[in-house]
Amino acid sequence: xxxxxxxxxxxxxxxxxxxxxxxxxxxxxxxxxxxxxxxxxxxxxxxxxxxxxxxxxxxxxxxxxxxxxxxxxxxxxxxxxxxxxxxxxxxxxxxxxxxxxxxxxxxxxxxxxxxxxxxxxxxxxxxxxxxxxxxxxxxxxxxxxxxxxxxxxxxxxxxxxxxxxxxxxxxxxxxxxxxxxxxxxxxxxxxxxxxxxxxxxxxxxxxxxxxxxxxxxxxxxxxxxxxxxxxxxxxxxxxxxxxxxxxxxxxxxxxxxxxxxxxxxxxxxxxxxxxxxxxxxxxxxxxxxxxxxxx
Length: 295
Hints:
By secondary structure, the protein is an alpha+beta fold.
């Protein structure tokens, strides 16, 4: 499920409502985490250079200004294209994972259809590796794509899977990852700890999206927070270090405050009388007044 039913994309990031069609009230967990700055300049430069060198038109570009500009334009957008393609692949893989869990829960599913979609994009290997992981870890699903809410801090999010593994309740977040030169799936980003701890700190979970029905969150004491890197060659499961959960929770709460202040400023600046920068005129010329003679 690429877009949870209660979530909508806005100019302030993805936000959640309490019911279908309701007012958007709080930001998503990933929107809050997105307030942390990332320096991707090197990666963007690498992707642009790689795209230009691999472009067959580059040899002829020196003799044509129009072709040269076309190569530069396409190379400049290489990072964004790669990001969008990876996101689309991630949506397809997540859809398959969700359907597998729904099948285990005895609910309506489309495992065959989601797997066929992956095959059409030459991505069956991700499903194969996931099936191997599922067989090895034997999770017992409790809920899939479960939306949770924290009113005190002010955020919501959707958990990929809540399941029992080895008799212990686990909150699980899937991340589709590429493969390195050694054929190993790339490591998870440490920010996944913030995402998982925000999930376990929820106060409510969704029961009925249409009616806006919620119930108290029953898994606030889930002992295992698990990030699962899904790759083409393997799957790597990693547990969030319990000793780092408190620090990541405080960091998440701080980022939520940053989001709130930023949104308030953006709304304030929409008023024409509240522009962030104002013109300043030069001061009037100083007038020399005659001095009185000292007595």
